[in-house]
Specification:
The chain has 208 residues and is mostly helical. 64% of the residues lie in helices and 0% in strands. The relative contact order is 0.16. The N terminus is likely disordered.
Amino acid sequence: MNTHTDAVLAAAPARGRHIEAWVDVVPPASATGTLKEAYDWQAAKLGEPTEYTQLGSLLPDLVRERLQLYKVVDSARAGLSELEWRLIAYVTSRLNKTPHCSSGLEVKLEELGIDARQREQIIADHANPDTGSARLDALISYTSRLTLAPGEIQERDIERLREAGLDDADIVAANNLSAYFSYTNRVATGLGLRTVIPVQHARDAVPE
């Protein structure tokens, strides 16, 4: 018998398929150390860590850094409006076919007055949108190209954003948000997280 190995295994947090995904996770009740601190950070506002947060729980440092990045990205909006912000994230998530992320964004868009019909029209026309706002159209078009064909982005795409009234800080914020959601989209779908985000999680998941 290897007593050291036995002790390590005995001290390890419980793990298993506690959420609807294809990998094991550590549930909140079993979290310790860095993972517990990260869970508690999000739970202080939300009441519990999200499924997405738990999805990385076998690597506690990753969970902590993801939450920190989430907080920074959400606050780094430059001059983008709430509607522009949410639509960039939504278009990215829909084009990446990520129901987990897009479901939470639908809640926010509904609150901003964008109903299901309008959302579907935006996705249908994502390459050449016609929302009635040149600025919003430029952002949606850029987001579409960045998500589906990033290697085809040209300086002309950035110039179009400037012509629509965005300054370079706005452009960096838009680029970063879409890139961030492409990352989260691939984490969620790549590990089997396809659930619908609860309304409270959609509203309050960003840790304070």
